[in-house]
Backbone:
């Protein structure tokens, strides 16, 4: 498998056995928004708005570059946005407007 | 090594993180946090989910820490019947103790013995027994552990300070579907007179993932 | 023994089982993981494809998580199997003890009997 097919046949998250550097055992508590994001994921699964497997697929579908560059919950929220667009639940414009409004109001 | 579980239990007992807590108010939220706030608020406005559900789920997450797993392990050490039931049906037996599985996963308990050491990894994502251990540590979700634990488990274990003799089989479980896994570590020597509660205090999160074993308590070790 | 909620069912003569009701494999059976190469979504890591193992336990039927990945929340359920594969069979030059093994759950449609 040396052609471009490997780019689609191996998902970015399929890394078992690929080796790597030493394990950095740093631990830090989740930021408040990260915990909310986790709770959101669970609630979306409870309602099957986005089930757990759709979330996993949505994260993998972000591609290798984004998976490498973004943190765990950054990937999750981005995947949720994409899936909600695909399902016709939200539109990109609606989210963009809402994000502008949230940013403008400043505080959380 | 007792402090890990206790700290987790105490840390998670703190306030629920949601909008407008005073410590957050001063900071400007980052791009992805703004996205999280926006997606959540839009879904609430559409009445697809409620704010109460989110808060409730944060409480659910906060109520799950490695202290629960430690309780299960300690009970299994002192009660052979319980251990047998736990190995036969992990979820049902945890539910007996009053620990629920909010994510509807099932649980297999992997018992370490003189001849077998179990290690758990999720190479494809970050499957973890959240109902009984809480959210996984950062390293469990990151590439180095996921990429290496399946192919060089003994090296990985050594990095955690865990040396498994060659006459002990290392069994790596790659968690990929609806099952979750809890390692039942070996009870350390010199703890015969310990109460169940004292035993629970010895159990670490890492031992329940399988990257560590549980050493005899310092006071029991010969100088 | 690990949980074995799924099983090969014994039936009265004349009873026809629906697909997925009875497990195709039972504990101790030798199986091979298929070498298919799905795109889009899968839950069988590439390192496992084409490898042989032994069924350790039979897991009661559930949805195919590869289809769930696209929002299919209902459908025909099939068994999962937790299989044991020798580390030496998985990794060339595996540095460990000969008894070291990997255990992993695999959906029924990914396995063949050997």
Residues:
């Amino acid at each position: 498998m040396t052609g471009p097919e490997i780019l689609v046949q191996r998902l970015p998250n399929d890394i078992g056995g690929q080796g790597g550097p030493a394990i950095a055992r740093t631990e830090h508590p989740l930021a408040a928004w990260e915990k909310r994001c986790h709770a959101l994921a669970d609630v979306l699964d409870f309602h099957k708005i986005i089930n757990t497997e759709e979330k996993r697929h949505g994260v993998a579908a972000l591609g290798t570059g984004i998976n490498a560059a973004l943190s765990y919950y950054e990937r999750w929220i981005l995947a949720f946005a994409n899936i909600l667009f695909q399902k016709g639940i939200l539109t990109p414009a609606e989210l963009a407007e809402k994000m502008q409004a949230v940013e403008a109001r400043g505080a959380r | 090594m007792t402090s890990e579980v206790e700290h987790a239990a105490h840390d998670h007992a703190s306030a629920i993180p949601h909008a407008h807590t005073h410590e957050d108010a001063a900071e400007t939220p980052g791009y992805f946090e703004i996205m999280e706030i926006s997606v959540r608020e839009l879904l609430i406005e559409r009445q697809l989910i409620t704010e109460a559900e989110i808060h409730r789920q944060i409480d659910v997450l906060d109520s799950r820490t490695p202290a629960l797993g430690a309780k299960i392990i300690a009970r299994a050490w002192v009660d052979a019947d319980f251990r047998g039931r736990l190995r036969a049906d992990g979820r049902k037996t945890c539910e007996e103790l009053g620990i629920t599985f909010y994510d509807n996963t099932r649980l297999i308990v992997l018992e370490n013995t003189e001849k077998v050491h179990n290690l758990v990894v999720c190479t494809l994502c970050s499957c973890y027994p959240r109902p009984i251990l809480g959210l996984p540590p950062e390293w469990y979700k990151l590439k180095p552990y996921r990429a290496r634990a399946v192919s060089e488990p003994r090296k990985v274990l050594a990095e955690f300070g865990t040396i498994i003799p060659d006459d002990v089989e290392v069994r790596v479980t790659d968690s990929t579907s609806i099952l979750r896994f809890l390692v039942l570590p070996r009870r350390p020597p010199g703890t015969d007179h310990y109460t169940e509660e004292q035993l629970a205090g010895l159990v670490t999160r890492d031992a329940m993932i399988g990257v560590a074993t549980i050493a005899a308590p310092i006071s029991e070790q010969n100088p | 023994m690990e949980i074995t909620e799924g099983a090969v069912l014994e039936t009265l003569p004349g009873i026809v089982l629906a697909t997925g009701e009875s497990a195709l494999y039972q504990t101790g059976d030798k199986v091979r993981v298929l070498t298919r190469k799905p795109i889009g979504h899968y839950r069988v890591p590439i390192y496992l494809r084409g490898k042989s193992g032994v069924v350790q336990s039979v897991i009661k039927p559930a949805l195919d998580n590869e289809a769930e990945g696209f929002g299919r929340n209902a459908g025909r359920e099939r068994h999962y199997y937790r299989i044991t594969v020798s580390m030496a069979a998985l990794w060339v030059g595996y540095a460990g003890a000969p008894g070291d093994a990997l255990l992993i759950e695999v959906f029924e449609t990914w396995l063949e009997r050997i």
